[in-house]
Specification:
Elements lengths: L2 H10 L1 E2 L17 H9 L2 E7 L4 H14 L3 E7 L8 H6 L6 E5 L3 H6 L7 H6 L9 H11 L5 E5 L5 E5 H7 L10 H11 L1 E3 L2 E3 L6 H7 L20 H14 L13 H9 L5 E2 L13 E5 L9 E4 L3 E5 L6 H11 L2 H11 L8 H4 L21 E3 L14 H14 L4 H21 L1
Parallel strand pairs: 2-3, 2-4, 11-13
Antiparallel strand pairs: 1-3, 4-12, 5-12, 6-9, 6-10, 7-8
Helix pairs in contact: 16-17
InterPro entries: Bact_solute-bd_prot1 (IPR050490), SBP (IPR006059)
Pfam families: SBP_bac_8
Keywords: Cell membrane, Lipoprotein, Membrane, Palmitate, Signal
C-alpha cells in the first residue's frame, strides 16, 4: 500500500484502551464464555472499509467499542467516494480491510474480487442468534450472494423521508410539504418553488437521483435480467419511472448539461440552500445554514404506503481478513440489542432487529433531528427488497451505463424509447464483452 493510504489508515485509527469489557457476547446466547472472552480479549487490529458508513458513525462505534474490546485497534478506511482507495487497489496491495460495510448493490464487486466469505461456520461456532433480526435481511443477502451469508446485517430501512428547506418555503409563501404525499404532489410543489430570484436559480427538488428513482425504485424493477445475461431496462415500468424523474428536471427555467446533471452535484444544491426538497441526505453533510424539517417520502399512486424497498446495510467479513474470529465478534456485537438500541437512538441508524421497543427509539437522542417530525420515518411501510439474480450470471457495472444514458433524456431531450433502447444495447454489449474475457 502506498504512503497515501498508510497515512489515511493512521488518521482513521482509534486505539481502544479504555478499561472494562462488560456484557455477554452480543447475539450469542449460550456461546462459550471462555471462547468468547479469549477472542474478545486478545490483541487484534480490525479495519473497516466504509463503503456505506460515515466517519461520524465509525467514530461513535469506536468510542462504544472501548468498553467491549479493550485490546482491539479499530481502523477506518474511506471508500472511493470519500477519496479513499478502490477495492481493486486494496486487493492488489493485499491490504483489504477485515470488514466491508456496504449494501447489496456492492455485492457484485465483492464477488468479482473474491472477497465474499461464508460466515456460516463462525455463526455456528459462536452460536449467533439470527432469529432476533429481520428475516428479510438474511434473505436479501442470500439472494445477492448466491446463497451464502457473508456478513451480519447492521441496519434496516425506514419508510423514507423527504427533507425540506423551511426558510425557502417561508420566503416564497408556499405551504410546507406534509406526510402522505405522492410524487405527483411533490412535483406540483416543486414547480411552485422553482424560480430565479436575486440572480439565484432555486430548484423545487434536487436529489441523488440515480438511487432514489432508479436503483432503489419501489417497484423492484431490475436493471439486469434476473434469469438471463442481458439488460432489463427497456420496459414500460422503467419508462414510467423515467418519466417521473425527468419531469422534475425539465421544469421551465431549469437547464442542465453533462456536468450539472451529475447526481452528486445535484443533491448538494439542497445543502447550499438553493433547493427546496430532497430525499437524500448524508450525515457527513448536514451542517445546514437554514431551518428544515422532514415529512414522509413520496409514493407512486400505484403503490400507496410504500416509498422504498428494504435495503439493508451489512458488515461483511472479507475472505482476505487475517482476523476473522475477532472481526466476527465486532460484527456480531454491532447487531446486539444493546448496540442496536444505542445506534438507533443516537445516530439515526434504523434497527435491523425485530424488537419494537428498540425501533421506537429511532433518533430519540439524535441532536440533528431534535424537534423534527421523526414520526414521518414510520409513515410508510417498506417493500420486500430488490430481487436477486440467478447464480452464475455475468455482472457488469450496469448502473453506471444506465445512468449515462438516462442523463440524455434531460440534457439532450431524447425520447424514452431511444434512451431505453440505447441503454439496453450498451449494457448487453458490456455483458458480452465480459463473458468473452
Amino acid at each position: 500500500m502506498n504512503s497515501k493510504w498508510i497515512g489515511i489508515f493512521a488518521a482513521g485509527s482509534l486505539m481502544l484502551t479504555a478499561c472494562g469489557n462488560g456484557g455477554s457476547q452480543a447475539g450469542n446466547p449460550g456461546a462459550s464464555e471462555a471462547d468468547v472472552a479469549k477472542v474478545a480479549n486478545m490483541p487484534a487490529e480490525i479495519s473497516f472499509y466504509m463503503w456505506s458508513m460515515s466517519q461520524s458513525e465509525f467514530d461513535y462505534i469506536a468510542e462504544q467499542a472501548k468498553k467491549k474490546f479493550p485490546n482491539y485497534t479499530l481502523k477506518a478506511v474511506p471508500s472511493t467516494g470519500s477519496g479513499g482507495p478502490t477495492i481493486d487497489a486494496l486487493v492488489t496491495a493485499d491490504s483489504m480491510p477485515d470488514l466491508f460495510v456496504g449494501r447489496g448493490v456492492a455485492t457484485p464487486d465483492l464477488q468479482k474480487s473474491g472477497l465474499l466469505y461464508d460466515i456460516g461456520d463462525l455463526m455456528t461456532k459462536y452460536k449467533f442468534d439470527a432469529s432476533r433480526l429481520d428475516p428479510l435481511a438474511f434473505e436479501q443477502m442470500k439472494r445477492e450472494t448466491g446463497g451464502i451469508i457473508a456478513g451480519i446485517p447492521l441496519s434496516g430501512t425506514n419508510g423514507g423521508l423527504l427533507h425540506y428547506n423551511k426558510d425557502l418555503f417561508d420566503k416564497f409563501g408556499v405551504p410546507y410539504p406534509k406526510d402522505g404525499m405522492t410524487w405527483d404532489d411533490v412535483y406540483e410543489i416543486a414547480k411552485l418553488m422553482t424560480r430565479v430570484e436575486g440572480g439565484i436559480q432555486y430548484r423545487g427538488f434536487s436529489d441523488r437521483w440515480m438511487e432514489t428513482f432508479f436503483t432503489q425504485n419501489p417497484f423492484g424493477e431490475p436493471i439486469l435480467s434476473l434469469t438471463e445475461d442481458k439488460a432489463a431496462v427497456n420496459s414500460d415500468k422503467w419508462r414510467k419511472i423515467g418519466e417521473n424523474w425527468k419531469r422534475f428536471y425539465t421544469i421551465p427555467g431549469l437547464k442542465f448539461d453533462s456536468t450539472t446533471i451529475n447526481k452528486d452535484l445535484d443533491w448538494k444544491e439542497f445543502i447550499k440552500g438553493n433547493s427546496a426538497m430532497t430525499t437524500f441526505v448524508s450525515r457527513n453533510f448536514m451542517d445546514w445554514n437554514f431551518a428544515w424539517d422532514i415529512v414522509s417520502m413520496p409514493t407512486y399512486k400505484e403503490l400507496p404506503g410504500i416509498a422504498r424497498l428494504a435495503d439493508f446495510r451489512s458488515v461483511y467479513i472479507t475472505s482476505s481478513s487475517k482476523n476473522k474470529d475477532a472481526a466476527f465478534q465486532v460484527a456480531a456485537w454491532l447487531a446486539s440489542d444493546d448496540m442496536q438500541s444505542k445506534l438507533t437512538a443516537d445516530t439515526g441508524l434504523y434497527p435491523v432487529l425485530k424488537n419494537e421497543e428498540i425501533k421506537s427509539k429511532y433518533m430519540m437522542n439524535d441532536p440533528l433531528y431534535k424537534g423534527k417530525n421523526i414520526k414521518a420515518a414510520s409513515y410508510n411501510k417498506v417493500g420486500p427488497g430488490m430481487p436477486g439474480r440467478k447464480p452464475g450470471l455475468t455482472n457488469v457495472k450496469a448502473e453506471n451505463m444506465f445512468m449515462k444514458e438516462l442523463q440524455k433524456a434531460v440534457v439532450e431531450n431524447k425520447d424514452w424509447n431511444t434512451v431505453l433502447r440505447s441503454a439496453e444495447e450498451v449494457i448487453n454489449k458490456a455483458i458480452q464483452s465480459e463473458k468473452a474475457k
